[in-house]
Amino acid sequence: KRRGGKFDVLLQYSGLIGQESEYVKHKLAYGDELAVVMKKIDCGGDATALGSGVGAAKIASSDDPATTLKLCTTVPLRLFRLSLTAATIAFDYEYSLIGLPEGSDERAKVEHQVHTRSARRLEDLCFKNGGIYIKLGQHLGQLDYLVPLEYAKTMRESMLNRCPTSTYDQVCQVVKKELGGAPEEIFDEFDPVPIASASLAQVHVARTHEGQKVAVKVQHTHMTDTAAADFATVDFIVNTLHRFFPSFDYRWLVDEVRETSPKELDFLIEAANSEKCMDNFRRLSPHIADYVYAPRVDWGLSTSKLLTMEFIEGPQVNDLKSIKKLGIRPHDISKLVSQTFAEMMFKHGFVHCDPHAANLLVRVLPSDKSSFFGKRKPQLVLLDHGLYKELDTYTRTNYAALWKALVLADVKGIKENCMKFGAGEDLYTFFTSILTMKSWERVIDPAVDHLAINDQSDLQIYGPEYFPQVTELLRRLPRVILLMMKTNDCLRSVNNALLQKPYLESFLIIGRVSSEAVIEEKLLRAKTLFSWISVWFEEISLEARFILMRIALWTLQFKKLLSL
């Protein structure tokens, strides 16, 4: 009441289910979000009658009584958890910081405590509700520049490695429904214990009747049942919080997950993405096609909810101990990862947007023989092809031109291409800082190592100070660029895990590939001999500049070696 009733709607909403009059009142006040929730679970105004004959008749007469009963019992509980968690976190922030001056040490200390408590509450909510909530938690864990460090760290440490698993009975239900028989009938062998579990599915090792060892990805049974209602409830809570706290604006994140999740839930789309990815490397990047691999799909044993693919042995890209045992140098993997995703972003325009460590395996290149010094060439194995983004020619070319300008510290080119994405005069410098995790002064520094990756980024340290600018920038940018930013964050994390120190060559690779993409597009548009010659001279100039930068890099590394 002291805050004008800002929390009333959240606290009332947490006890809303079963109160039709409250539902109508909030529907009138806040639009159709609640109606969507009730409609999805098909028990709207009859929620109060679930224990009566009316509710029983409603369930019995539905197309799928078992699923309807499940929705009418589980969705309200999930909704209650979400509403209560949101209200508790909002209340904690609002009242814990009362009377503490901005910028004071005491406020910073209390803020850290509130961030930590709230992150744990959100983590607990994600694990209890599962599914889409874990997917949202994973996204938050990769947004160091947007959320407080306590949130990013908590989500990153837990959401990728501790996802809940389905029971073997649930797995059997999916296999029987999708393939027409029990796992033991469809496969010669089927390990009931999953080797990995993620937010949407889990993976079991099996062997086909032909003797092929395969990985079987089985979708969690609750995903499609509650996804629509989950999105509606999360959307309602996020919009409600934004109404009362305008600086809290994560609507774009909910929109993004709502758009991408249906595609991730269709494993046939994932299978097609993996084949298209490999085809792009063979056609557009043949020079590294042998060094990038995706497991072959067994189409005869795959459906929209179950995916059977070739089983690949290999450590995750951040498992340094296992990688070194293979005789592979970590910096060779870092170069390959940078090259692979630069080719995707700037040349293919078809980008794997979830390249965290669990989705990147490493193995020795099958055709490689050990060198005289025992070093082996790596092959990068890409997993989980559910989340891809296509870049149209305009977006792909301008994004390549932007990164070319960033690597070359070209102030005019940086501004010009940032403006094309809608960053504006007031925020284009901030946009570059988010992309590179460097201050603007560092971005335009002509030194060859100006974009070197550091363990502690300028922007991450001062993130809370810049929160309003970040929120406004993300509102302006095209959503496809938001996913490219997320991909950059994942790759930055992988490189840091591999090398645990700045690695300048990654940015030279990005600069070279982005420049090649820009030149290729200009050559396609060249209509006259003069314009073709002009582009050709630009290509020579860029090549010479990158050679000089590499020489400067070697000189810098040699000096550092001598100083040890």
TrEMBL record:
InterPro entries on file: ABC1_dom (IPR004147), ADCK1_dom (IPR045307), Kinase-like_dom_sf (IPR011009), Mito_struct-func_regulator (IPR051130)
Transmembrane segments: none
Domain of life of the organism encoding this protein: Eukaryota
Cellular component terms (Gene Ontology): mitochondrial inner membrane
GO biological process: lipid homeostasis; mitochondrion organization
Pfam (any one): ABC1
Domain (ABC1 atypical kinase-like) ranges: 159-416
Protein family according to the UniProt entry: Belongs to the protein kinase superfamily. ADCK protein kinase family.
Name of this chain's protein: ABC1 atypical kinase-like domain-containing protein
Organism whose genome encodes this protein: Ambrosia artemisiifolia
